[in-house]
Amino acid sequence: MKKQLKNIVKFTNDYTNEDRIILRDHLAMERTKLANERTLLSYLRSSLYLLLGGVGLVSIKDTIFEDVKVIGYVAVVFSIIFLAVGIIRYIQLKRHLRTFK
């Protein structure tokens, strides 16, 4: 399972940090950290929108829209998947950046 997950979210680990980092490199890593946090928040926002839409579709009581409930359940499942992928990618990049300091 872990090997399959690594194939889904790939990183290049062929870079080795042999030199002392300079200010430009430090600032680039700080920008990358901020972009990583912004990406996590984007995944979280998308996950919450899917959850909200899914719960809204599932809670429809009208008999005309009974077939729409399936779409609601699918949206809730995708919401959980989006959240998991976002957290995994955030943690992976954070660990990856930690090796360069």
TrEMBL record:
Residue ranges occupied by any DUF202 domain in the UniProt entry: 31-95
UniProt key word tRNA-binding: no
InterPro entries, per database record: DUF202
Highest taxon above the source species: Bacteria
Location(s) in or outside the cell: Endomembrane system
Membrane topology: Multi-pass membrane protein
Regions crossing the membrane: 40-58, 70-91
UniProt-recorded name of the protein: DUF202 domain-containing protein
Membrane among keywords: yes
Keywords: Membrane, Transmembrane, Transmembrane helix
